[in-house]
Fold UvrD-like helicase ATP-binding domain-containing protein.
Amino acid sequence: MNAVFEQAVAAQERAIAAKAPLFVRACPGAGKTHVIVSRHLRGPSVTLRHGRALLSFTRAAATQMRRRCHRDARPEATAFPHYIGTLDAFIWDALVTPHLPANRPLQLLDSWERVQAEVNLDRPIPLSGFTFARDPKTGQESIRRDLLSHEHTLLINSSRYGWDRWVSAAMETRKAQFQAGYVTGHESRLLALRYLSAGEHVTGPLRSRFAEIVVDEAQDCSVTDVEIMTALHRLGIPLVVVADPDQMIYSWRDAELRTLRDLAVELGQTVELNGNWRSSRTICQAAATLRSGARPPDSAVRPPQVEPPLILLPTQFPKSGAATHASTGRPIVEAFLDHAQVHGIQPADCLITAHSRSYLPAKNRRPSGNNATMLAHAWHVIRSGTADQALVDDACRIAARMLLRYWYPDAPVNGSVEARCTAAGVEFAGIVRRAYGFVYRLPEPHTSWITDVNTALKSASRPPGANPRGRTGQLGGKPPKPRTATATAPFRSDNIHQVKGDEHPAVLLLAPDNDVSSRWISGDPGADESLRGWYVAVTRAQRLIAIGVRTDQVEPLTAYLTARRVTNLVG
Ligand SMILES: Nc1ncnc2c1ncn2[C@@H]1O[C@H](COP(=O)(O)OP(=O)(O)OP(=O)(O)O)[C@@H](O)[C@H]1O
């Protein structure tokens, strides 16, 4: 065993065994999941009545933790009184719903888009376009103007009404939605904070259920999340906060490192994990060039025997269509897959990522086209047999909206599928089942598919109270856009936010900006979120990292990486 390995094991052991409260500052690939699950399975022991909450940012991470418990033959470690899930779900399940008045049911939405809530002054703007924030010092709520999209900024700037009027209209719209029984994650957090300060009758049961609460990926917690964690800590619930501040990529949703740092200080004890169990030395060195503070590269705990260099691919990014390899004119993805092949890495082990999905090869992406294109997408998802549950769910909702429009032409057309079912007086689950069956029985999308869909609509068995009126709700317009050849490609492609926490033998990062090199060389990762995004992307790689940049960016980047001792090759 070498020294790096021994140090990495020892550091993990410290994080597993230290008593809470505890802050764990971990580098990429530090084995946070291993540490958290080992801590849960090994101790400090919890009594029968006391459980531990393991909270992650994504459902996938929670599933991984549950799987680890099952793999170690400890299924009981996933059951009550323990809680393994997302922070969002925990706040709702453990901190809010037990305390809601019985006569006031609320539904948690993942976004205001689910009910198509709009703020309407002289033009409509979706309520989901406004980011609400809470000042932890004053408890005052505001809307982050800096997080408004470019499109919504233009709409507001050209409106007759000023920003303040839009803010109050957005607040009023949200209040009306609350009164109608809907909240999103932000409002659920406000309720949690209110209940946490309500007194012993609320906090007592929480303290007796949880001997420890562990929060992973805490760098992406919002200011309000950190406020909730601080409140839990101050109530005496042992808290373990695990974070990699360099990987913070959610500042648009109000994540802030300063508040996290304050919490780390308040917790009083920090364990550092600087060994990277995932990546090669070259990748650790490349990653170090993307973070602040001139810290030395993390140690590669298990470097591969042969280290491929970092590959820079000169790339052309057309306004529309696929990016191409500048020297050969082939799709850039093919050039990358060839490099992976040289190192014995199969396409199925490759990941292609970028900040924006628009630069990625289309694959299972929800299309933005007309209703026929959307329904055709639903058909492909449902018939694929391999799509994950969220995609199938979304596909059923696309079809359910269409069926409801056709069967109940007089019911309101706005609101969630659930709200439309309620308005039509039908059971939501029944409509979703019918939607699934309806799409499943359709033929494969083709140029005159719309006629087939409308024939199927007319002959489909109808739910109670359905009363179609002429062509209302039938499909019209242009035929569905055909799927692209890469739609069924064997490699994975996802934007940077979706690849967080994952790892792949080979990764291609597409960075189309025309100032990549200047930002990479002299930008401040503390202030430039793109740099942190690139950092996340690069650190997903185990053996091979390739970066597609504009041709004029290649030379300065090569010179810089070479100066920082990152072995690289222009491919
Ligand atoms: N003690 C260990 N022994 C063997 N393998 C380990 C150990 N710790 C971590 N690993 C492996 O290292 C890899 C990285 O671990 P993990 O995915 O938990 O990292 P992470 O800390 O969540 O990183 P990131 O924040 O970058 O996603 C995984 O393949 C994991 O199985």
